[in-house]
């Protein structure tokens, strides 16, 4: 493996950590309700656990309401059960045609709790980035040990990897700060 390949792999892996963090953030509710809160809900569709959005239309109809319209009316009970089991903090309201989820406005405590969760997700992303750095540095040490690169090249490579790490950790901090602002905005 060349230094260039190590650099590319490192940047790609660190970027993936950022993508995972962004995806994790979608599970946190801010002032406005998002359909992504239901991403983890699986419905028993003829014996197969199926993502909710593959058996129904899921829409955020306003800031505090999600409407779920199943494509097959006989799925209403299954969807209702799946939502109750997912324990997302609201009870489904089944009107025989669709299911409505009414989310109460978030309290300050809930917002602060979600900020804590966002910070924890940020820390998790930083740990992942540091693990990528460690992996890259080990590969560089191997190249140096096997005399494929000089000591100076290894030093420069370690510095370059550290620069990537600093840049990506800074990105994580910026994302967490932005999410925190979004969560606390009423």
Count of individual helical segments: 4
Task: Compute the number of structural domains.
Answer: 2
Task: State Rg.
Answer: 22 Å
The helix-and-strand class reads alpha+beta
* CATH fold topology of the largest domain: Topoisomerase I, Chain A, domain 4
* Order of secondary-structure elements: HEEEEHEEHH
- Seen as an oligomer or otherwise, the chain set is single chain
Detail the poorly predicted runs.
Answer: none
Which range does the strand content fall in? 5-15%
Name its key features:
four-stranded antiparallel β-sheet; 4 helices; single chain; Gyrase A, domain 2; two-stranded antiparallel sheet; alpha+beta; 186 residues; Topoisomerase I, Chain A, domain 4; 6 strands; 2 domains
Please tell me about this protein's structure:
- This protein is of the alpha+beta class and 186 residues long.
- It has 2 domains: 3-27 and 107-184, Orthogonal Bundle (Topoisomerase I, Chain A, domain 4); 35-102, Gyrase A, domain 2.
- 57% of the residues lie in helices and 15% in strands.
- It is built from 4 helices and 6 strands; from the N terminus they run αββββαββαα.
- The protein has helices spanning 3-25, 76-86, 108-145, 151-184; strands spanning 42-45, 48-51, 56-62, 65-70, 93-94, 99-102.
- Strands 3-4-6-5 form a 4-stranded antiparallel sheet, covered by helices on one side. A two-stranded antiparallel ribbon has the order 1-2.
- β3 and β4 form a beta hairpin.
- The protein is elongated.
